[in-house]
Each structure stands twice: as structure tokens, then as C-alpha cells.
Amino acid sequence: MISNCYSQNNREHYIKRLSSVIPVTRIGHCSWNKCHKSYYECLNELADAHPFFLAFENS
């Protein structure tokens, strides 16, 4: 779930390159995919549908 739209670590570049090789689901404030449920309901749905996740920390 993406909440920081303008990161300083250029993570958007990594996500774009990764999604050119494998399907990547992006959901959140900065994505065109929005989850209109509670935060935890969205996380549970994502966890059920995807066995892996990639996390970038805000710093």
C-alpha cells in the first residue's frame, strides 16, 4: 500500500522495473488502485491474494 507519493529513495523506479518483469499489484493513495475498505480489511485481502510483498520504509 503506497502512501508516500514522492519518495526520496526513488522506489518508484524499482517498482516500475520490477513490474516490467512480473505482475505487481500496487494499491494505495498514490496508485490508481484504491481500496475503499478499512486499512486492515485491505491488508487482509492483499495478504490472502499474494504470497509475497515488497516493503520500502519511509525515512
From TrEMBL:
UniProt keywords, alphabetically: Glycosyltransferase, Golgi apparatus, Membrane, Transferase, Transmembrane
EC number in record: 2.4.1.-
Span of domain Fucosyltransferase C-terminal: 1-59
Main location: Golgi
Subcellular location(s) per record: Golgi apparatus membrane; Golgi apparatus, Golgi stack membrane
GO CC annotation terms, alphabetical: Golgi cisterna membrane; Golgi membrane
Broad class of enzyme this protein falls into: transferase
Entry membrane topology: Single-pass type II membrane protein
GO molecular function, one term: fucosyltransferase activity
Record-linked InterPro entries: Glyco_tran_10_C (IPR055270), Glyco_trans_10 (IPR001503), GT10-like_C_sf (IPR038577)
PANTHER family the UniProt entry points to: ALPHA-(1,3)-FUCOSYLTRANSFERASE C-RELATED (PTHR48438)
Family statement: Belongs to the glycosyltransferase 10 family.
Protein name: Fucosyltransferase
Source species of the chain: Rotaria magnacalcarata
